[in-house]
Design goal:
With 328 residues, the protein is an alpha/beta fold. It has a domain of 186 residues: 3-Layer(aba) Sandwich (Rossmann fold). Helices cover 35% and strands 27% of the residues. The strands form 3 sheets. The chain has an 8-stranded mixed β-sheet, with helices on both faces. Strands 2-12-9-8 form a 4-stranded mixed β-sheet. Strands 10-11 form a two-stranded antiparallel ribbon. Helix 3 packs parallel to helix 4. It is globular, with a radius of gyration of 20 Å. 43% of the residues are buried. The structure holds S-adenosylmethionine. The site of S-adenosylmethionine has 19 residues, from helix 2 and strand 4.
Amino acid sequence: MTKLDERYELLDLGTEGLSESLAEATQRGLTASPKELPCHLFYDERGSRLFDEITEQPEYYPAQADEEILRDRAAEIVAAAGGPLELVELGSGSSTKTAPVVDAILATQDDLVYRPIDVSRAALEWGAENLLDGRDALRVRAVCGDYAEGLARLGAGERRRLVLWLGSSIGNQTRDEAADFLRRAREALAPGDALLVGIDLRKDTETLEAAYDDSAGVTAEFNKNLLHRLRDDLGADLDPADFVHRAIYDREAGVVRIYLESRRDQVIEIDALDLEIPFEQGERIHTEDSTKYSLEEIDALAKRAGLVRERTWLDGEERFSESLLRVS
Ligand SMILES: C[S@@+](CC[C@H](N)C(=O)[O-])C[C@H]1O[C@@H](n2cnc3c(N)ncnc32)[C@H](O)[C@@H]1O
């Protein structure tokens, strides 16, 4: 593997742009009713590793389907975007799915600047090491921080931009938030730039609930990473084993809702915040949503954001979609 060299630069925005720090989110979310914590807090180094493990679970079809589309259609996607390109990626994680797109671009131009934006510095570094290895014509300009803030700071580009937002991360937002986020992304980009957005499709409850509650318990461990962070970073006197992971599909809303459910009545003291949080047995902390779309809903989403949906690619089993949305 390549050690990071002068082809890698990192701009660390800290918590700027993020709605809340761990302490602020805990203070607000655990004193709210019902209790909640924002999902960007999953991704410290341990959480990023666990997410990568989730993508290897047989039940987690979104990763397999997304990878299949990008592996098989990268050249078509890059041709449809139209070059020469600069590549931006929102919530890139360890950039495991990005390589086919990078290679397809490098097959059509001499060099490439890749700008991944992610809250996890560890994941940005793993991703850059993997991508730089064996690709001398690649430069990585990473931004550690909130992706809305990273996008807003992109400034003018010398080349047309292709912005990847893969892995169904858009599903963590409500439909209104997603339309608003895409509208702001459009405003940060120039006419002719494009977004490639990975969006998971509506499907049966059994498949969806299994995807977010795999039999090896990796997603449960990922969800409980929030409890590890409360214990290790804020001094909360809790045992993660006192909570159960729940993934429940609300079919009508088209949303998988993820919770941590208390196994018993308990009071958790959080030293760093001077807080005592009571839980009743069965009481839940809402930690994540994953919104699913129909193709019609994807069309409506693009229109609301003022973007033109030019092409959509599906995997062979039509479980997952990648849409090319153009800034006009
Ligand atoms: C579901 S993972 C997807 C990773 C990768 N793109 C993939 O498809 O496998 C979401 C990624 O977004 C990052 N992330 C979550 N919220 C973020 C935010 N508000 N700003 C920047 N990155 C964020 C996480 O650190 C994580 O790497």
